[in-house]
Amino acid sequence: MGIERIGVVGAGQMGSGIAHVCALAGYDVLLTDVSEDALATAVQKVSGNMDRQVSKGLITAADKDEGLRRIDTTLKLKDLGPTDLVIEAATERETVKQAIFEDLLPHLTPDTILTSNTSSISITRLASRTDRPEKFMGFHFMNPVPIMQLVELIRGIATDVPTYDACKGVVDRLGKTSATAEDFPAFIVNRILMPMINEAVYALYEGVGGVLSIDTSLKLGANHPMGPLELADFIGLDTCLAIMNVLHDGLADTKYRPCPLLTKYVEAGWLGRKTDRGFYDYRGEVPVPTR
Ligand code: NAD
């Protein structure tokens, strides 16, 4: 299966990053979103991030021009029909993702591989609603995509070997490293990371420490580059809560119950950096802990 044309669905923080790295690796990228604004913002963001790479000497100005030229945008999902690989990176809601694959199916070539960048939703269940469960798998990039080295490759129960090998080949060409995960709730990274973040929120909730004490402890005491609460703000507290709920529902173990304080922050609309307030308040010059 030769992959040259990649369709990316969803032009948010992940979709724009995926388009960025695929274009720099020489793939032709067609990026789609339901929002024209999201598409325009994504192209601007890719250009700005490529400028940063040029100024650091990681790529040349010619690489940037060539990369940007390889990214096309469209509001019509069906335009992705002739691509070799589709990477779905739309909002983390199962109904949204299912509808995207359903709408796309009639326009696809028989060989197109379908993948999802979902952080937690069952690949097997998404695949089962398509006409090609054996050509369907999880392609889980980390945020920010141009910087993070790992891609988790998740096999659904029906995923066949040529599909896995083709996706692994794409990860290799991107210059990234893959780790293989079987299809269980939240896969590997978030299965381990989210309970740690949730436990940090419990420590805050129970008054074991304040925001700064908890983040400083993990940074200096466990050598983590970011504290767990700072990291939660970066990921998005709504996303963290959604993943904890998937773990709790999918594994039916009370050890995954989301901390009530995490739920409260989400109810308040304090979702982290994207809303300027979460465990830290980002509205001033420097982030200020909110507890
Ligand atoms: P985001 O909110 O930044 O972007 C989602 C985009 O999807 C938006 O631009 C939205 O307009 C678009 N969209 C919604 N419905 C659509 C549809 N029907 N067709 C086309 N586009 C549609 O979200 P994100 O952080 O980029 O997350 C996207 C996916 O990546 C999710 O599945 C998420 O779980 C996963 N993910 C996120 C992170 C992270 O740290 N944020 C990390 C790894 C994986």
UniProtKB/TrEMBL annotation:
Keyword Metal-binding: no
Transmembrane segments: none
E.C. number(s) listed in UniProt: 1.1.1.157
InterPro entries assigned: 3-OHacyl-CoA_DH, 3-OHacyl-CoA_DH_CS, 3-OHacyl-CoA_DH_NAD-bd, 3HC_DH_C, 6-PGluconate_DH-like_C_sf, 6PGD_dom2, NAD(P)-bd_dom_sf
One GO term of the biological process aspect: fatty acid metabolic process
Amino acids binding NAD(+): G10, A11, G12, Q13, M14, G15, D33, E92, K97, S119, N143, K274
Family according to the record: Belongs to the 3-hydroxyacyl-CoA dehydrogenase family.
Top enzyme category: oxidoreductase
Name of the protein in question: 3-hydroxybutyryl-CoA dehydrogenase Hbd
Keyword match Oxidoreductase: yes
Residue ranges of every copy of the 3-hydroxyacyl-CoA dehydrogenase NAD binding domain listed in the record: 6-182
NCBIfam families on file: PRK05808.1, PRK07530.1
Site annotation Important for catalytic activity: residues: H140
Matching Gene3D superfamilies: N-(1-d-carboxylethyl)-l-norvaline Dehydrogenase, domain 2, NAD(P)-binding Rossmann-like Domain
Location of the 3-hydroxyacyl-CoA dehydrogenase C-terminal domain: 187-282
Organism of derivation: Octadecabacter arcticus 238
Swiss-Prot/TrEMBL keywords: NAD, Oxidoreductase
GO molecular function: 3-hydroxybutyryl-CoA dehydrogenase activity; NAD+ binding
Pfam families for this protein: 3HCDH (PF00725), 3HCDH_N (PF02737)
